[in-house]
Write a structure and sequence with these properties.
The structure is a single chain. With 520 residues, this protein is α+β, with helices and mostly antiparallel strands. The protein has eleven helices and 23 strands. It has helices at 17-25, 30-39, 66-70, 302-322, 363-372, 389-407, 409-429, 446-468, 470-483, 491-499, 505-513; strands at 76-84, 89-99, 106-112, 123-131, 134-135, 138-141, 146-155, 160-170, 185-187, 190-194, 199-200, 203-204, 213-214, 232-240, 244-247, 250-257, 260-266, 274-278, 282-288, 291-297, 330-336, 342-345, 348-352. The strands form five sheets. An eight-stranded mixed β-sheet has the order 5-4-8-2-1-14-17-16, with helices on one face. The radius of gyration is 23 Å and the shape is globular. The chain starts with 16 loop residues before the first helix and ends in a 7-residue tail after the last helix. Residues 1-28 and 33-44 have low confidence and may be disordered. The structure holds zinc ion. Residues 369, 373, 392, 395 line the site of zinc ion. This is M1 family peptidase. Keywords: Membrane, Metal-binding, Transmembrane, Transmembrane helix, Zinc. Its cofactor is Zn(2+).
């Protein structure tokens, strides 16, 4: 495709042990093969110690590659997966280097098995686990949505452990009607596989040493379910050559054998790694601020595919100008079996098939909302089950910036009245208005959840901007992005940021729109 594919940096292999380890332990992926060949090389001169982040750099634009050096120790996943679309199976193995970045010693690790969530409908069986090369014991917990792996000795803060896992995944097959909403599985000649691998749970420090906890909440269809620390991924994915993958990261190598294509992808800091694929995708690309944006589309929807590309390019530029530049070399937009809804993943947004056809009028707003999640979810992350408002309200508000910049103030004002004010007034007329800052399950139904968290949440952001002024508001967002880059934010931390604004009226706005102020 282009020269970026040649950039896998070989000397890296000589001391990135998990990769070598994977190639010996779990069969030779393409990445492993390349690295094994290097295993025979001579030793490395200590004075020219290779760059530990070299493998991941192609995922980021050159001016953001420094993020890899600055963001501190993070899980590193080296995954090898084979997708068998007709058998509805995925066979996977991973070597995961896990640093303990908490304040507590860890006596066990928790991996989330997201395909086991009821609304994902998959079935994941872990077949083996090694801890630093030795067989490890593990049990399924939390209604089989998590795996607990006991550590031979406590992992102290600052220490790392290497876990190797093998698993099999049964992929659910759903109806081929365009009205289905399925985040995971096969439908309409597409397979969506977010979180097809065991994903290290988020560990949150408690008020005192030793009181932290692994995150074990199970999200539902109403909101998002995945909560992850920013991690690095190197993924070897094998699938039939006629299937086109849509993923996170950037492709750095590809080879083909007997009708199967093996791709290698790497990411920069990333909340998860998406695999989505179809044998009938076509694609078109454009450039935006040094990022290649690719829009995939199904047969007969080329015009909508082109429109989606245009919207995504516009959104990427507008949000880069207002929040801070989009840091990755790739961004993708693709249809998925999620009717007229959208879903965000790192470096990819998926849009319901019906937004390319009968709900074409929703396509632009959906792209504008989902693209904003590349900042509010992927760069700054939050618990999507307990505090969904943190990313959703801001992603929704971001649409206003998109509208102002593309169509002008009058159209943006129409968005505010029609999309936010009208539904909120309807809710108030039914006496169902409630606080924005609540967990997903606290809302009566999907309609109340969406109107309050999205529309009312966006109106709050709009009120803050009006109160503090556009320039100060944008500086606030830019500082927020810089300070919490690749981190996880809570409502309390977010409030501390809000308090930095020199206008106490914003706290009144918070109480008026979002919820009670917690005691300081
Ligand atoms: Zn959203």
């Amino acid at each position: 495709m282009d020269d970026r594919r040649k950039v896998v940096t070989f000397p890296f292999a000589l001391y990135f042990s998990p990769v070598l380890y994977l190639s010996c332990w779990a069969g030779v992926g393409l990445l492993g093969l390349m690295l094994l060949l290097l295993g025979g090389c001579t030793s490395v001169d200590a004075s020219t110690r290779p760059d530990p982040n070299a493998l991941y750099r192609p995922a980021l634009k050159s001016e953001f590659q420094n993020d890899l050096d600055l963001f501190g120790p993070a899980p590193r996943y080296t995954i090898s997966a084979t997708l068998l679309p007709d058998e509805l199976k995925l066979i996977g193995s991973a070597v995961i280097e896990i640093p303990n970045t908490s304040r507590d010693p860890w006596t066990y690790l928790i991996f989330r098995l997201y395909p086991m969530l009821r609304h994902y409908g998959g079935s994941m069986v872990v077949q083996g686990a090694l801890l630093d090369g030795k067989p490890a014991t593990y049990v399924y917990v939390n209604e089989n949505t998590a795996l607990r792996l006991d550590l031979a000795k406590p992992l102290m803060p600052g220490q790392s452990v290497t876990v190797a896992l093998t698993w099999r995944l049964e992929i659910p097959r759903w109806s081929d009607q365009s009205a289905v909403y399925v985040l995971f599985g096969r439908s309409q000649q597409m397979i969506s596989l977010p979180l097809f691998y065991p994903s290290l749970a988020v560990y949150t420090n408690g008020p005192t040493i030793g009181s932290g906890q692994w995150w074990l909440l199970n999200g539902t269809e109403r909101g998002d379910a995945a909560f992850n620390v920013a991690s690095l991924f190197a993924v070897t994915l094998t699938l039939p050559s006629d299937w086109t993958p849509v993923t996170s990261g950037v492709e750095v190598a590809r080879d083909e054998l007997d009708g199967q294509t093996r791709y290698v992808f790497v990411t920069g800091p990333s909340r998860e790694f998406l695999v989505h694929a179809s044998p009938v995708f076509s694609a078109i690309s454009a450039e935006a601020y040094g990022t290649r944006v690719t829009s995939y589309y199904l047969p007969g929807t080329e015009a909508a595919g082109q429109a989606a590309l245009r919207y995504a390019v516009q959104a990427l530029r507008i949000y880069s100008d207002h929040f801070g530049e989009y840091p990755f070399t790739e961004m993708r937009v693709a249809p998925a079996p999620i009717n007229f809804r959208g879903m965000e993943y790192p470096q990819s947004i998926l849009l319901g098939v019906e937004t390319y056809t009968r709900h074409r009028d929703k396509l632009e707003m959906l792209v504008a909302h989902e693209m904003a999640h590349q900042w509010w979810y992927q760069i700054v992350h939050n618990d999507p089950v307990s505090e969904p408002w943190l990313d959703e309200a801001l992603a929704e508000f971001s649409m206003r910036l998109y509208m102002e910049n593309v169509y002008g103030d009058a159209q943006a004002q129409r968005l505010v009245s029609q999309r936010w004010i009208a539904p909120l007034e309807g809710l108030r007329a039914r006496q169902q208005d409630t606080a924005v800052a609540q967990p997903v399950q606290a809302f009566l139904n999907g309609s109340q959840y969406e109107t309050v968290v999205y529309a009312k949440g966006a109106l709050f952001w709009d009120a803050v901007r009006r109160t503090v002024g556009v320039r100060r508001f944008e500086r606030f967002l830019q500082n927020y992005l810089r300070k919490y880059r690749w981190k996880i934010i809570t409502t309390e931390e977010w409030l501390d940021e809000l308090r930095q604004l020199p206008d106490p009226a914003v706290l009144t706005l918070f109480e008026e729109w979002i919820g009670e102020l917690p005691p300081k």
